[in-house]
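_Full entry_
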Amino acid sequence: MADEILSQNEIDALLSALSSGEMDANQLIEEEKDKRVKVYDFKRALRFSKDQIRSISRIHDNFARLLSTYFSGQLRTYVHIGVASVDQIPYEEFIRSIPTKTILNVYSVAPLDGRIIFEFNPNIAYAMLDRMLGGTGSSVNKIDNLTEIETSLMSQLFENALDNLQEAWSSVTDINPILEDFEVNPQFLQLVSPNETVVVVSLDTTIGDSSGMINICIPHVVLEPIIPKLSVHYWMQQEKTKERKPEEYQMIAENIKQSDMDMTVLLGETSITLEEFLFLDKDDTIVLDRSIDQPLVLQVDQEPKFLVQPGKKKHKMAVQVLEEIKGGD
């Protein structure tokens, strides 16, 4: 149980009670030794750690950005999607929290077991449908009498968005999401037992002037095989042990060879006073610090790399490399 943090007023009152004798310090010590009891509800078993919940939140932050770009392109209007919350609750509580009539898409995510649910608020779903059919994106709730064409158009739009889900989860595991069912009544969906723990990711969605929530329900049975991969420690360890393949090194080397770089030859340097600079005139001579028989410095991206001597090649100015300029260790 987390320690209780006292306010300044509570601390002052406690010190005052101790100094006046109203409260005995030994009594406080005895109370501290007593066992503290916290009520635990087994129906709301927390099967994911805070670290794992944070990892799921990061994954769906990326998914929300990808989904915003996808829907903006498909619907040709402003779409903003962001993660509002990530909670673990019993499946029964999730079913009770969503409207009795809504848009439900059920996906399998092979090779993981089980299925996940995407719940689209009717306001959002109809705004999308209106934009697809050339409208302004207004929302009219007529979920009780969806036509086959409307159902087909919605299913197609949501199914094409699965590539973004696959990409978002690719940092943890490879999945192949497939739309398996389209439903409007949550009472007909019994994916897991009522007390089974599920992770619910709520996405706050705005499409033009319409707004609503997209809820993603992921049962524990789906995430169970990859739970160890949801820890930050695992991700950091994977980054440390990850090694490039030989063909990757070859590709990087070939790309580097094609890179452009600026090369300049420094003829020499000198310093003059500001007065001398102001009175420079035609035919004046500036003496450099390098003799004509000394090699010149060739710079690569303003760093001295070679000693060279000037000359010509095929009627063009050129330099010949004499030796490399070596820096420190």
